[in-house]
Design goal:
The protein is built from seven helices and eleven strands. It is an alpha+beta fold. The protein folds into two domains: 41 residues; 237 residues, paralog of FGE (formylglycine-generating enzyme) (Alpha-Beta Complex), CATH 3.90.1580.10. Strand 2 and strand 3 form a beta hairpin.
Length: 343
């Protein structure tokens, strides 16, 4: 081949390679542009304070973007509406979804960095509530505890008893008297999980830093929680341990239908009463590192964590930072609230 012809072929080949590289770069740039656009549209979900500034239209758009981005996680959910909730000085527009397998309402919560635990000056503070920072991804969580109706819908598939609760009167009462083992089996069948302890406290606080989600005045709990109160059995009221509060909540020694009291600023019900709620974590000290994104802590403890107050407990044990631990056996005042991580 003549040298000139060879040179021309080489130049043509180089030009073709350059053109191909340009096309590849353009394609990569377009893909990155799409990812940047999606990331930008979801950015308010990374920080609760930024999210709290959004109006209803922006929250609805954000919900739709989240549904498209996390299509697998949202595949079992149907969007319902956006609603505004306020409590304890915090306020948010929140998107509400129905989980098709269970029939339970869920909310999409933003993530962000929050201070978990209680300050040293909080009344009734316990030694295991050391304050520390945790960073969470957004997640979906049920607005109220899992009900007896939702439990029964998947009991056969999960291989658990369909009606374990000792309380009757409505299948919209929280399911209780269920072991942690059975709860995890049900969650697998429902394609959900238990919230981590950090997710639970973040959801309970809803942007507040007070002892309870509605503030530091325990008397306000009468609007927010079914606790041990003055209409409980007389032997409770006379007990030396003083396990009742002075107000009347209308339920005595019984559960209330899930969602009977006021919601917090994230639209969640019963975070301070009705049944204690199991979490995903082992009961370990807060010095154990929390996983970024979910806040999960694991260890060698034989105990699991439960959060929130109960119909037969006091305001003290219903505080947002209060931790309870147990072996995961069934109790009539223990239930759970399902959750879905958004990776």
């Amino acid at each position: 081949m003549h040298f000139k012809d060879a040179a021309l072929l080489l130049i043509a080949g180089l030009s073709a390679c350059t053109a191909a590289e340009d096309e590849n770069r353009q394609a990569v740039s377009e893909v990155l542009g799409v990812h940047r656009t999606v990331a930008d549209s979801l950015a308010p979900l990374k920080a609760r304070a930024e999210y709290a500034a959004l109006d209803d239209r922006a929250v609805e758009s954000l919900a739709r973007a989240a549904e498209a981005h996390w299509s697998r996680e949202f595949s079992g959910f149907s969007y319902q509406k956006v609603e505004r909730f306020s409590a304890g000085g915090a306020s948010h527009w929140i998107s509400i979804w129905v989980h098709e397998r269970t029939g339970l309402e869920f909310v999409l919560l933003p993530g962000g960095k929050f201070r978990m635990g209680s300050p040293a000056e909080e009344l009734d503070r316990q030694d295991d509530e050391l304050q520390h920072w945790v960073t969470l991804d957004p997640f979906l969580i049920a607005r109220a505890e899992c009900t007896q109706r939702a439990w029964a819908r998947l009991a056969s598939e999960a291989g658990v008893a369909p009606d374990p609760s000792r309380f009757e009167g409505s299948d919209l009462l929280p399911v209780s008297s269920v072991s942690l083992h059975d709860i995890k089996s049900w969650c697998r069948a429902a394609h959900v999980s238990l919230p981590t302890e950090a997710q639970w406290e973040f959801a309970c606080r809803a942007g507040t830093t007070s002892a309870w989600t509605m503030g530091d005045d325990r008397r306000e709990l009468a609007r927010f929680a079914n606790l041990g109160s003055a209409d409980c059995p007389q032997d409770w009221i006379n007990a030396d341990v003083k396990i009742t509060e002075p107000w009347l909540d209308g339920y005595g020694n019984a559960l209330s239908v899930a969602g009977s009291f006021s919601a917090n600023a994230f639209g969640l019900y019963d975070v301070h009463g009705n049944v204690r709620e199991w979490c995903r974590d082992d009961y370990v000290a807060y010095e154990t590192p929390a996983a970024r994104g979910t806040g999960l802590r694991t260890g060698n403890s034989r105990l699991a964590v439960a959060r929130g107050g109960s119909f037969n407990g006091t305001a003290r044990i219903a505080r947002s930072a209060e931790r309870n631990s147990d072996e995961g056996i069934l109790h009539r005042h223990f239930g759970f609230r399902p959750c879905v991580d958004l990776p």
